[in-house]
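tokens incoming
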């Protein structure tokens, strides 16, 4: 009975930790490229197209 209890406890702890780590890695991956690729100065883009 003690082995079953320890097995259930271990599996639950591993699943909780893996889900927690998975969420933190997702947040880091989202934050790395979270800019949309928009230019910092939109007026610079307009000036270069008007000069050509």
């Amino acid at each position: 009975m003690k082995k079953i209890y320890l097995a259930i406890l271990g599996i639950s702890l591993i699943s909780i930790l893996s889900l927690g780590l998975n969420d933190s890695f997702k947040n880091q991956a989202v934050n790395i490229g979270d800019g949309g690729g928009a230019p910092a100065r939109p007026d610079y883009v307009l000036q270069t197209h008007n000069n050509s």
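note: The CA atoms of residues 6 and 12 lie 10 Å apart.
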